[in-house]
Amino acid sequence: MATIGRRTFLKLLAAGAAATVWQGNPAVPAIAAPAPYRLKDTKVSPSVCIFCGVGCGLLVYARDGKVVNVEGDPDNPNNEGGLCAKGASAYEVYISPRRLKKVLYRAPGSDKWEEKEWSWAIPEIARRIKKTRDESFKTREGSVTVNRAEALGQLGGASHDTDECYLLSKFARALGIVSLEHQARI
Ligand code: SF4
């Protein structure tokens, strides 16, 4: 009777085990089944990160009217698909239960925030801008005409695009505002 060495025995054992797996032994779980594609049936829209003036491009995926994923836009020349930690958290901001969705107002001297409607907030802001400007507008400094609203300031936001920034700065200059700044610079 022929004898087999230890090395040959191990080779035959391994070949037998492989053959058993290959034949679909139900006791062996499948380990390479593909996960379902998570962006299936979504509609994608290009957008811009709201957090800073770099203006990185985003791709926003929505299914049934709800955002399900946000990621960097590889076709945007600003970021070529990459996002910093803030931009990468854009989807979490969208789903966060702490996200503000209403106007919050804290009256002078108060320590409490009140929820307000936009229909209250916008005319109130306009009234206060006019009042402050009327009370503080400076027409001259010494012998020089200045026409400045020194008690007002304007702060731009990174989600404004170029045209909006142009219009907002025009609006501020028309009021006489000289303290103009942008959120991305501070
Ligand atoms: S916060 Fe980050 S991702 Fe967003 S625009 Fe700025 S650099 Fe880009």
UniProtKB/TrEMBL annotation:
Q: Name one GO molecular function term.
A: oxidoreductase activity
Q: What is its EC number?
A: 1.2.1.2
- One Gene Ontology biological process: anaerobic respiration
Q: Give the domain of life.
A: Bacteria
What is the required cofactor set for this protein?
A: [4Fe-4S] cluster
* Gene Ontology CC annotations of this record: cell envelope
List, alphabetically, the Pfam families matched. Molybdop_Fe4S4 (PF04879)
InterPro entries, alphabetized = Mopterin_OxRdtase_4Fe-4S_dom, MopterinOxRdtase_cofactor_BS, TAT_signal
Q: What class of enzyme is it?
A: oxidoreductase
Where it sits in the cell: the answer is: Cell envelope
Which keywords does the record carry? Answer: 4Fe-4S, Iron, Iron-sulfur, Metal-binding, Oxidoreductase
Please list the residue ranges annotated as the 4Fe-4S Mo/W bis-MGD-type domain: 42-98
Q: Say which family it is in.
A: Belongs to the prokaryotic molybdopterin-containing oxidoreductase family.
Protein name as it appears in the record: Formate dehydrogenase
State the species of origin: Thermosinus carboxydivorans Nor1
Give the lineage.
Bacteria, Bacillati, Bacillota, Negativicutes, Selenomonadales
